[in-house]
Amino acid sequence: MTEFSYPRRLRLLTGRDFQCVFDDVQLKVPDQPLLILSRPNDLDQARIGFVISKKNVRQAVKRNRVRRIIRESFRLNQHDLPAVDIVILARKGLGEMENQDVHKLMKKCWSRLNSKSRKLKKT
């Protein structure tokens, strides 16, 4: 049976984890309200981290809501994602989106990340 939990091992926790992704970006999934940067990891699962600045999403309530929705989407789709470290960068307008729109956006972004990862593996 598939487990849909969100333990610590699925998170980028330290500054070093984030810096490794920023230094060696191999996959980019750009979209208007967010940018996904990722790089392959040595684990058998994807890990995720967030960079949601106050400059781009002003209110803490909105930053937390967006983070919660993306984390839930990741939790439900973690078994379909490749073994990569993922950093989600918020852009202006993400905090103003409705919950359903953020869910749709993330579904589209996970799909694009999967297809780009498959292309990267072939080369």
TrEMBL record:
Name of a matching Pfam family: Ribonuclease_P
Acetylation recorded as keyword: no
PROSITE patterns membership: RIBONUCLEASE_P
Chemical reaction(s) catalysed: Endonucleolytic cleavage of RNA, removing 5'-extranucleotides from tRNA precursor
Function of the protein: RNaseP catalyzes the removal of the 5'-leader sequence from pre-tRNA to produce the mature 5'-terminus. It can also cleave other RNA substrates such as 4.5S RNA. The protein component plays an auxiliary but essential role in vivo by binding to the 5'-leader sequence and broadening the substrate specificity of the ribozyme.
Superkingdom of the source species: Bacteria
Lineage of producing organism: Bacteria, Pseudomonadati, Pseudomonadota, Gammaproteobacteria, Oceanospirillales
EC number annotated for this UniProt entry: 3.1.26.5
Entry keyword annotation includes Nuclease: yes
Enzyme class: hydrolase
Name of the protein this chain belongs to: Ribonuclease P protein component
GO molecular function: ribonuclease P activity
Subunit structure: Consists of a catalytic RNA component (M1 or rnpB) and a protein subunit.
InterPro entries membership: Ribosomal_Su5_D2-typ_SF, Ribsml_uS5_D2-typ_fold_subgr, RNase_P, RNase_P_CS
UniProt xrefs under HAMAP family: RNase_P
Family label: Belongs to the RnpA family.
Gene3D superfamilies associated with the record: 3.30.230.10
Primary gene name: rnpA
Keyword tags: Endonuclease, Hydrolase, Nuclease, RNA-binding, tRNA processing
